[in-house]
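Thread: Newbie trying to understand structure tokens

Hi all, I'm a second-year student working on a class project, and my supervisor (Dr. K.) asked me to get a predicted structure for one chain before our next meeting. I've only ever worked with sequences, so writing a 3D structure as a token string is new to me. If someone could post the tokens and maybe explain what I'm looking at, I'd be very grateful. Here's the chain:
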Amino acid sequence: MEYTDINQTIQADGLRIVLVRGMPSPWGQAAKAMMEYKELSYTAGPQQGGGTNEELVAWSGVNSAPVVAWNDEAPLNRWLDILLLLERLNREKPLVPQDPSTRVQFFGIAHEICGELGFGWNRRLGMIHAGMKPGEAPKGLGEKYGYNETDGALASTRTIAFMGYLAKILKAQAECDSDFIIGQTVTAVDFYWAAFSNLVAIQPPQECPLNPAARKMFENVSAEVADAVDPILIAHRDRTMRNYFKIPMEL
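---
Reply by user tm_fold:
Sure, no problem. This is what the structure looks like when written as tokens:
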């Protein structure tokens, strides 16, 4: 990935995105792929995982990525705000359905992948929970992401339940000759699932060129979660990555 210095990224005009450098962070990778699908030119800056990222915090108020900004508008870091900005910037290639009932389903699934206590959130809590001792106060990422013992203990169960739900949807869609999660055309939820699936089944090195230490972290998936990954979920991921993402992933 060709990154611009973070200060230059902050001061640039047009569309900018800050990504976690060297990691397939799904929130950022999905946003980047949607920008490219919509043919939006952008400048990319790096967020250093585990670093203080003082310039990023001073600008955006968060030490996380992605952060997306357009011209002089306030920087955004929530997945929904980013998606709605991208929709506004290119309405000719929409990724959000217009039909009201379909939109309700779309935003529900999108939240269950990207939002608080959704799939990505639960995978993160599950990884933190695996390293916690009973009664131990959260530190580091646990403190940053509001870890608590109750949600941590439920994280794997919630992850498995969502994957079962999504697999049923994809099987029903396949019976309607659709390759997509909703309807007959690609939407943002296809991008989201493709990127977030790496949290349970990381792509091979030739597609996702992670350093070995980071790859071990992504490969550390409990047997119960790994066994719950229906092949149709990965088939959808691979098809979506092949058709709509840059492969190998740019990290």
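A couple of things are worth pointing out once you decode it. The chain has two domains: 6-89, 100-244. The mean pLDDT is 95. Feel free to ask follow-ups in this thread.
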